[in-house]
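## Example record

The block below lists the input lines for one assembly entry, exactly as stored, with component labels intact.
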Amino acid sequence: MATKTKTNKTERDGETLTKIEKLARQVLTQATKGNNPAVEIRTRTLSNVSFNTKRKIIELGDRTQSREFFNTAMARKFMQTLLVASGCKTLIEEGKTISIRQMFYMTKHTLDGSNENTFEDQSESDPIIEDLEVGIDALREELHLFANRRGLVVGKLTVNDAGDTIDLSRMGRGGWGIPSICESDHLKFVKNSAEFILLVEKQAVWHRLNEDRFWEKYNCILLTSEGQAARGARRFLQRMATELKLPIYILVDNDPWGLYIYSVLKQGSINLAYESMRMAVPNVRFLGMSAFDYKKFKMPRAAEIKLTKEDIARAAQMKAYPWFKDTKWQREIQAIVENGFKMEVDALLTKSISFITEEYIPKKLKDRDYLQ
Amino acid sequence: MLDTRSPDRLARETVTKTDAAPKRRATAETMATRQREISVSEFFTKNRHLLGFDNPAKSLLTTVKEAVDNSLDACEEAGILPDILVEIVEVQPAPSPASASANEAKERTQGGPSRFRVLIQDNGPGIVKPQIPKIFAKLLYGSKFHRLKQSRGQQGIGISAAGLYGQMTTGKPVVITSKTGKGRPAFKIDLRIDTKRNQPDVVDEGTVDWEPEHGTRVEIELVAAYRGGRTGVQEYLEQTVVANPHMSLTYISPKGERFEFPRVTSELPREAQEIKPHPHGVELGMLHMMLQDSGGKTVKQVLVDDFSRVSPAVAQQVCELAKVNPRTPAERVHGEELERLHKALGEVRVLAPPATAVVPIGEELLVEGLKRRFSKADFYVSTTRPPKVYRGNPFVVEVALAYGGELPPDELAEVMRFANRVPLQYQPKACAISESVYQTNWRGYELQQPKGSLPVAPMAIVVHLASVWVPFTSEAKEAVAHYDELLAEMKLALQECGRKLAAHLRARAHAQRESMRRSLFEKYIPEVAQALSAILGVPKEKTEKPFYDALPSFVRFADDGKGDGGDGGGEGGAAAARTPDDAEEVGKTAKGAKKGKPEKAAKGGKGSKVAAPPPEPPKGAGSGKRGKPKRGEQLTLAE
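Predicted structure tokens for the full assembly:
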């Protein structure tokens, strides 16, 4: 197994190294010719993404931006881009993988004759890594980088990760942490007996469900993204969707932010639009909470949280996204605004401690009460 | 006493009383007994504010000022480079008739009145002995009142008034020492003014041993107050030094501090030409006097002989316009005829007066003068406007600016006003010079200017008005009157300097920007080169060199000779040299923007580390290089 992984690496790594070297050679040639050395980077903004209605994913457009060295507004970022490129080259050559935070420390040092650092904090280096990914068209794991892992899973599934076989139905109360890189060279699905997948936004809700052994009772795989889903969780979900061919249900808070978490899982995000192909799961189902659940489940007034100005503004913003143009989504968003309040999944506890496990989710599933 | 009468009746009685004819208070005869000549001391006491002796502090300033002005005028007229000594010594506290109260003691510590001896000594031509008493102890005696010539003093009242003030406040005579040449005796004369007759009274006289070859020394003891600040003696002297670069001054203050201002040029101002009155500027009373004093000439002859720029043909024309027979004896022109003649003189087309009558300081010397006071500014600029005319009087406006350096950055700019090289220290608000500074839009020249205020900048502004006849708002000669022609010229001069200053500031800002860009790039080149070297596996020197080689194409070096603000019209160049880039950030496709900027200063090369500071424009930037005839020399103007 280990030898196989290694040969895979060399092959892919060779390509990545070539890409990095090509970038460097191009920069040096431009400088030698007396031109302004520049790195072309595809623009990662709303204006350069489009919604592919056929594939139902968000895709990055072709517009690029020239990051020039001899430009005071860009020189620093240009320098940082090359530092990260150089750092990645070292990692690939040495066959090591580090976190993006460790990359921050690896490339951070004080500039000669000043007290300025090459990077002041991680918020500066993270976008540069993403820039490099789109700049040379390489995946993050191809650069030997990973983000901090986030997300937990339990359920009727057995996987093999880096040689270890893990039965996800024997994970106790803590669950299994979803690794940040879930490519097939590391992670394989060994055995599956689940019938569906349930992903909940919040860790606390996941704990509630795990403690009630929900996954056992309903024969499913139970995940939490712990907020906005990280790349690992998204890739994990997509692979399960395509390889296990199971229906996926999403349970998020009833507010614009919850809807957006669902939206990112479904069709991708603006910032990582170039990764949508590998991460988006267009057929995930929005189980709840819906604004209409308030009446349906006769929620008490105590479940309400008044909408803030930001919530309303975010709702308006989302209504304008092309991938929310469908009438049922417009209705759902509009219903939140008209309610004038939002609801957390945790608010189901106003009914009873196990209301969510025993009544809410089973009823929604039984009624096929979801959006897609 | 209680009045029990009804209010009605009271009113009626009052009415009857006022109806009666008033009682005669005096007859012509009784009044005649009170009519007599007014003594000069009485006149002085009543009019001291007109002469600059309103209060003890101002009296001290006026005394110094009159003496220094006289000394400078005398030296220049004689063709001597002036060396002037001013010394003020506090003699003793002022005599207080009432016992010194606590209040008075307090006043004194705050610069209240005290007794001072003022000594002013020059190296002028000296004064012949018989003239000394008249000059220093007779009011309204002098050489300057009767002629039209640019000079500092104009009325011949100043120095003797100062002597009179001293005499009235301390009882001490004025002491004059004067010597007219090597080997000649120096006379020392103690003088009083006989205030009844306005005649000098020689108290004591004699010869003394006096080292200087020639010169005059005046000593006056007076009750006065010594103060600093805008209206103080020291301010007056420092400003005088600015407007008189050819003067050397030593000043010893009452505190015993000694200030030396050596001259910065040995070039005497050109002698101002005396001119006859110009028909456009003559006043009715003056015209009447000229006609009366003509000694039997005809009207036409008086016009031709006694006026500037009046030819026989012009005189004929004036007479026809005024419907006055040109052959009328001048003394016989009165009343309506006189008025018609005056009007005709004002209307006739005639050449402007000769510009030789006005002597400006000059652009270069003005900057040299300004440097005597503000030696550590970053930038100096000056402008001398061509001569112009208002109401028949030729005048020249000059402006100089000092900017930056040690001047205070967040304060209002300092304005120094001069009329014929004399500082104007009082009434800035009423003065056309201040008005011209206010009306100039300094915001257009890269400076801050709160509405209706002076600009806020590390800047000193000199405005000099040189004219045969300076129109003051009052006899105190403290502020220049608002004549449109003067204001317009002042503003033009200020604008000219402002433009050059703005060009300098823009060039400086540009150089700073470029220097910052350059050091930014230089900071990152080693990092980029190191990364490239690691990726490509080539030595760092090889990846670094192309960047240093390319650098000059992307930074405009300060030594490319652009925008030095000198030599006229540098402004456009500097503005055009601004860098257009560096604005855009990620998201805006700045494709190929500013690729390979044209650059003529690649000579900076890769080795040099820091951009040189912007070149300092030559003093009096722009002067003397334009191939025009030197201003003020034999130029006549069309009005």
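The longest helix of chain A spans residues 2-32. Chain A has 13 helices and 17 strands.
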